[in-house]
Write a structure and sequence with these properties.
This protein is of the alpha+beta class. The protein has helices spanning 8-17, 24-35, 42-59, 66-80, 98-104, 109-121, 157-168, 184-201, 205-218, 223-235, 239-252, 259-273, and strands at residues 84-85, 106-107, 127-130, 137-140, 144-147, 153-154. The protein has 2 domains: 8-179, C8orf32 fold, CATH 3.10.620; 187-273, Tetratricopeptide repeat domain (Serine Threonine Protein Phosphatase 5, Tetratricopeptide repeat), CATH 1.25.40. Strand 5 (144-147) and strand 6 form a beta hairpin.
């Protein structure tokens, strides 16, 4: 249902993203190569990351306590190399591509957290990436919570509640499950959703569609992606493809908050297309 037109790039993505021989960094770079940077040399960026990690490991003395290691990691990445959060151009699609973040040394929480956790491995620091709502962060065991977007600052529960309030208002309460480690698939999906939203806002509907198809390749029955694919098909005036997708969404989510909006869209599509 979701592959009416065969897209070799999406097929390549599905095979690559599901292959356990590739790590998160390689999959993020493959995502960039498929969507925007066809000439991207993945091995070159892997080499860059390894060089950064090796340089950092040479600065570490025999002390192996996590507080010291985190302090050295922060000093090296943020003070020496100059990585920082992209506060001025937060919604620029480039901030979701790992190669661009490496080159300009600015990124959003998810891309900086991925780089931060990867470099940390080189000094024996096992950090987990946390898909916190609205703001990806990292943690060491369940003891230390860090925010690579803000130079690796230490976060308290109060800080986490502030993040929730900032992104969602007072309606979302902090629960411990928000600090669960994110899977590779969850992180890739989050990157693709960021990009889909950015492309949609700039009317690049074909690129947004490719992001949606890449997510559906990993999660074929995702109601949100089926809905968004239907909405994008409607915007691309492909009404015959939009209609079954929008109906499928309502089948899967009959009580959805946006059910009325989707029903109106279905009605509009039928009127425009005589379907």
């Amino acid at each position: 249902m979701h592959t009416e037109q065969f897209d070799p790039f999406v097929s390549e993505w599905i095979a690559f993203s599901k292959n356990s021989n590739y790590n998160l960094i390689e999959k993020c770079l493959k995502l960039a190569q498929i969507l925007e940077y066809s000439d991207l040399d993945i091995s070159k960026y892997i080499k860059k990351i390894n060089e950064i990690g090796n340089s950092l490991s040479l600065k570490i003395n025999e002390i192996k306590n996590p507080t010291y290691l985190i302090s050295m990691l922060n000093e090296y990445l943020f003070d020496e190399l100059g990585f920082r959060g992209a506060e001025e151009d937060y919604y620029d699609p480039g901030n979701s591509f790992l190669n661009v973040v490496f080159d300009k040394k600015t990124g959003i929480p998810i891309t900086l957290s991925i780089i931060y956790a990867e470099i940390a491995k080189n000094i024996g620091l096992d950090l987990q990436i946390v898909g916190f709502p609205g703001h990806v962060i990292v943690k060491y065991k369940n003891e230390i919570i860090l925010d690579p977007f803000y130079r690796g600052r230490l976060l308290t529960i109060d800080n986490l509640e502030e993040i929730l309030d900032r992104n969602f208002g007072d309606g979302v309460e902090f629960i411990p499950e928000y600090l669960n480690e994110a899977t590779t698939e969850q992180l890739l999906t989050r990157l693709l959703r960021n990009l889909k939203n950015a492309y949609t806002q700039s009317y690049a509907y074909d690129k947004a569609m490719k992001c949606t198809d890449m997510i559906l390749g990993m999660q074929p029955e995702s109601p949100e992606e089926i809905r968004d694919k239907g909405i994008l098909e409607e915007r691309l005036l492909r009404y015959d493809k939009a209609l079954p997708l929008l109906n499928k969404y309502l089948e899967l989510q009959p009580e959805a908050d946006d059910a009325d909006f989707i029903l109106e869209l279905i009605k509009s599509v039928r009127e425009k297309s005589n379907l």
